[in-house]
Design brief:
Elements (H helix, E strand, L loop, with lengths): L1 H22 L20 E11 L2 E10 L5 E12 L2 E12 L3 E9 L4 E13 L2 E15 L1
Antiparallel strand pairs: 1-2, 2-5, 3-4, 3-6, 6-7
Keywords: Signal
């Protein structure tokens, strides 16, 4: 009886070990709360995205910190507005930094009465070879 219990316990433990790592890599919808499962990144240590709007001017900011062996980071940020039932890119900003850290901050005019979001693609490069790409979305919401 004791042997049967150990056998079932080992089978359940192995099944648990197979299920947990697979589910731990689920990407949750970006709601800016910082809660939920996040994918494991090998080279990108952290990112930050933000949009602030004042007097019809949007300030879009994105930054990345990668591991120190990364030789270049590329940031492509797209400010999008929700119009006619779809997201339309209003402005695209790009910044390249030849180190493991990069930051982007740009402004542009926006219209009242639309929802806005910032979709940022980060790319980590080592010696000219792209090793990791991370996509993040910051939802600003409705600009009244």
């Amino acid at each position: 009886m004791k042997y049967v219990f150990h056998k079932y316990f080992i089978v359940l433990l192995c099944a648990f070990c197979l299920v947990v790592p697979a589910s731990a890599n689920i990407t949750c919808a970006a709601d800016n709360s910082g809660i939920g499962a996040q994918p494991l990144n090998l080279y990108v240590s952290s990112t930050s995205e933000n949009v602030s709007i004042s007097d019809g001017i949007a300030t879009c900011s994105s930054s990345i910190r990668a591991t120190t062996n990364v030789t270049e980071v590329i940031i492509v940020a797209k400010l999008q507005k929700y119009q006619n039932d779809s997201w339309v890119t209003q402005e695209t900003f790009t910044e390249t930094s030849y180190t493991y850290y990069g930051a982007l901050s740009r402004t542009c005019a926006v219209d009242h009465g639309y929802s806005y979001r910032l979709v940022t693609t980060y790319q980590a490069v080592i010696n000219g070879v792209s090793v990791e790409t991370v996509n993040k979305t910051y939802n600003y919401g409705l600009y009244m």
